[in-house]
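Students often ask why inverse folding is considered easier than folding. One informal answer: many sequences map to the same fold, so there is more than one right answer. In these notes we will look at a single instance of the problem. The structure comes first.
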């Protein structure tokens, strides 16, 4: 068979067409495959979306068959979706029979009438609540006459609805209760709208504004309070609403004809409006004013107390301290105004030594800070380092504060110690007395006694320990008396001292021969003191003294007569001797030889010296006996002393003594006996001359006159000093001693002569004083003070 080119061309065209058709077929197949794959993926997505959706669908065919996902079976409490609708109920799971019957009836009605339905079901053993919505299915989805049921998990919604129902019911009950509470509230309460107008008021508000009812108050806008600082109550409420914050203020308002203080509060309630209420605080304000007045009065009173008082508040800050407390602990006004804390106060007190020393001060301070938490009062003694003793009392207050009381017990303890010492001293003193002492109370019972009281009355210690009554005591004492009837006088003495408050006394004789003298004296504390003294020996001595006194009186009479006759008895013989000697010296007895004349001169010298000694003895004796006569006259002291010095001029020159008499013509006059004062001052000048006589180089004597006042009187002082050998204290005492009575009462001892004793007695007789001072090797000074004449 020949293959022509035409055939080849046709064959090529056919093969090409065949190849092209195959390529197109392959391309179309690939496109369809991709579309199928996309459709399958979309179907899977849709299926997954349906499975995960909150709603599950079930199709119910006219014959009762059902189709639905496995998830819906789980919602219904089944392991797998059954084939028919009637199988949705099982003995222990699935739908309850009554719910299944209601669902089947609703599905049947929908299949017959195409009417949709909605209901709620719940599977047994499950907490889920399912909402079912049914309608007739689209023929494209299911066979004609099928029902389409959508199941929704309505558990959360049902719970929320149930909760809302409960809350709604509770809110209604709370609103009713709140409305009743507001209406029954004793305080005015109200509610304002957003425009500030009153919307609601309670009965207390109506009564406060004296309105007829709440409708009248709301309609007329009757306000409870007036404008304050140009703002009406509605404007204040508007401010609270705008700021979103409550506003509270204290205002005054007239309620029931009385001016009352109210605390008004406006509370914003968001978009709803503003609520308000008013609390009558007039009583509280009055109480607050009374409390402030009481606190001020209390603090003023505390300032007058001697004890320190301080108050700390609930945060342990010092709010008050009276003046004694501030002085005790060195507090200043800055401490009071700066809110000094309790711990800081302890530190400040410790710095100034006003708290006791503590080994562990931080622990000690923590213990005392714990006083604020105690229920009972605390009491401590604080001995300080400076010897001060403080008593600290801490009283916790109901508000959490602390009242601190500090009392300085230093003086009290000192007085207590002194009292104990006095009691012990009194007891020791009582026991050491020579008298028998006892103290009786006003009721007659013995309180205190000493040992001598028991011994004096012959009483036993055991008997006195019972503090016997005076009547019982007198029974025992009466048996000891020589005359028992005298016991009554002893009881009268105690009664007079305790009840009549007067002193009495007496004397009793005991059977043993003793004599007791007693006395009763009232004491300042109302008790009576009974003193008894054994005077047995003194009674005997008294009799002897009476006899001796009579003898002394007779001796005094003899002494008086002796002094009266001594002048005549001594001077008459001496005058006769002197007169005869002078006659011999004058040659009346004939011429005398030289030796005879010397003897006569010696006799005259001895007579003169003996006359002076006799005068001294007489003056001294009369002065000691108080019989020295003084012939006082006005004496100008400076010429008087000058004459005394001139009388001794020869001895002064013989001893090469420098005598200096210092004074002026206005030295003054004194009332004195010139003869006896001259003898006294002459003795002092003679002693000065004798002390300086024979001193190598000559001695010095100074006589100085001066005036001074003693006890408001003018006194003339005469100072006579020398620079002689001086005397020690013992020698000076012997020089002033002169004559002394011996131990036997009769002998006369001679000391250093009679000059100084006589001079002292003569000066004292003139109302003056004599004082001698001397030092060995430095000389002696005699100071004579004499009263001067009163100036006319």
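Output (designed amino acids):
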């Amino acid at each position: 068979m020949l293959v022509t080119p035409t055939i080849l061309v046709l064959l090529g065209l056919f093969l090409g067409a065949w190849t092209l058709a195959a390529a197109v077929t392959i391309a179309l197949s690939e496109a369809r495959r991709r579309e199928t794959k996309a459709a399958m993926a979309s179907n899977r997505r849709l299926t997954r979306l349906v499975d995960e959706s909150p709603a599950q669908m079930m199709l119910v065919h006219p014959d009762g068959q059902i189709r639905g996902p496995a998830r819906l079976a789980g919602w219904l409490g089944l392991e797998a979706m059954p084939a028919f609708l009637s199988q949705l109920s099982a003995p222990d799971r699935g739908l309850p029979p009554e719910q299944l019957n209601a669902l089947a009836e609703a599905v049947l009605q929908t299949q017959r009438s195409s009417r949709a339905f909605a209901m709620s079901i719940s599977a047994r053993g499950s907490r889920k609540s399912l909402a079912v919505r049914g309608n007739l299915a689209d023929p494209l989805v299911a066979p004609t006459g099928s029902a389409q049921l959508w199941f929704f998990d309505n558990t959360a919604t049902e719970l929320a609805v149930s909760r809302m129902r409960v809350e709604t019911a509770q809110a209604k009950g709370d609103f009713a209760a709140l409305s009743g509470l507001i209406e029954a509230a004793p305080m005015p309460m109200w509610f304002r709208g957003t425009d500030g107008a009153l919307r609601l008021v309670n009965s207390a508000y109506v009564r406060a504004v004296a309105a007829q009812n709440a409708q009248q108050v709301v309609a007329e806008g009757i306000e409870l309070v007036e404008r304050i600082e140009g703002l009406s109550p509605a404007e204040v409420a508007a401010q609270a609403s705008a700021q979103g914050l409550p506003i509270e203020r204290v205002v005054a308002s007239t309620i029931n004809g009385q001016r009352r203080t109210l605390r008004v509060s406006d509370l914003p309630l968001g978009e709803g409006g503003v609520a308000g209420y008013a609390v009558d605080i007039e009583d509280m304000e009055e109480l607050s004013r009374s409390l402030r007045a009481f606190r001020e009065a209390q603090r003023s009173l505390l300032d007058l107390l001697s004890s320190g008082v301080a108050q700390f508040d609930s945060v342990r800050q010092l709010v008050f301290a009276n003046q004694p407390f501030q002085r005790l602990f060195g507090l200043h006004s800055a401490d009071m105004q700066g809110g000094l804390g309790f711990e800081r106060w302890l530190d400040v007190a410790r710095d100034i030594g006003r708290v006791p020393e503590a080994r562990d001060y931080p622990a000690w301070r923590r213990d005392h800070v714990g006083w604020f938490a105690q229920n009972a009062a605390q009491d401590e003694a604080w001995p300080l380092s400076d010897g001060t003793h403080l008593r600290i009392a801490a009283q916790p207050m109901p508000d959490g504060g602390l009242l601190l009381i500090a009392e300085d017990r230093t003086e009290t303890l000192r007085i207590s110690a002194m009292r104990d010492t006095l009691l012990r001293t009194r007891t020791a003193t009582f026991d050491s007395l020579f008298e028998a002492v006892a103290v009786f109370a006003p009721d007659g019972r013995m309180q205190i006694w000493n040992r001598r009281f028991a011994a004096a009355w012959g009483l036993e210690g055991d008997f006195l320990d019972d503090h016997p009554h005076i009547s019982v005591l007198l029974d025992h004492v009466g048996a000891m008396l020589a005359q028992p009837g005298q016991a009554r006088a002893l009881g009268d003495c105690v009664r007079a001292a305790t009840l009549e408050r007067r002193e009495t006394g007496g004397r009793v004789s005991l059977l043993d021969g003793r004599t007791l003298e007693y006395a009763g004296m009232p004491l300042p504390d109302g008790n009576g003191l009974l003193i008894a003294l054994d005077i047995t020996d003194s009674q005997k001595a008294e009799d002897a003294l009476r006899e001796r006194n009579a003898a002394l009186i007779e001796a005094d009479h003899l002494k008086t007569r002796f002094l009266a006759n001594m002048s005549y008895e001594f001077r008459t013989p001496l005058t006769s001797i002197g007169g005869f000697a002078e006659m011999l010296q004058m040659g009346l007895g004939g011429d005398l030889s030289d030796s005879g004349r010397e003897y006569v001169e010696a006799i005259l010298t001895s007579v003169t010296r003996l006359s002076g000694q006799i005068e001294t003895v007489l003056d001294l004796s009369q002065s000691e006996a108080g019989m020295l006569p003084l012939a006082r006259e006005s004496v100008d002291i400076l010429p008087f002393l000058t004459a005394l010095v001139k009388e001794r001029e020869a001895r002064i020159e013989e001893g090469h003594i420098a005598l200096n008499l210092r004074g002026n013509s206005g030295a003054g006059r004194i009332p004195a006996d010139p003869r006896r004062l001259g003898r006294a001052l002459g003795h002092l000048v003679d002693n000065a001359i004798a002390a300086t006589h024979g001193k190598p180089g000559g001695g010095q004597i100074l006589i100085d006159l001066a005036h001074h006042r003693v006890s408001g009187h003018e006194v003339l002082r005469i100072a006579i000093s020398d620079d002689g050998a001086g005397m020690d204290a013992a020698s000076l005492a012997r020089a002033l001693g002169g004559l002394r009575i011996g131990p036997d009462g009769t002998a006369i001892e001679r000391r250093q002569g009679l000059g100084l004793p006589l001079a002292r007695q003569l000066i004292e007789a003139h109302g003056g004083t004599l004082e001698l001072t001397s030092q060995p090797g430095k000389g002696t000074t005699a100071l004579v003070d004499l009263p001067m004449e009163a100036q006319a």
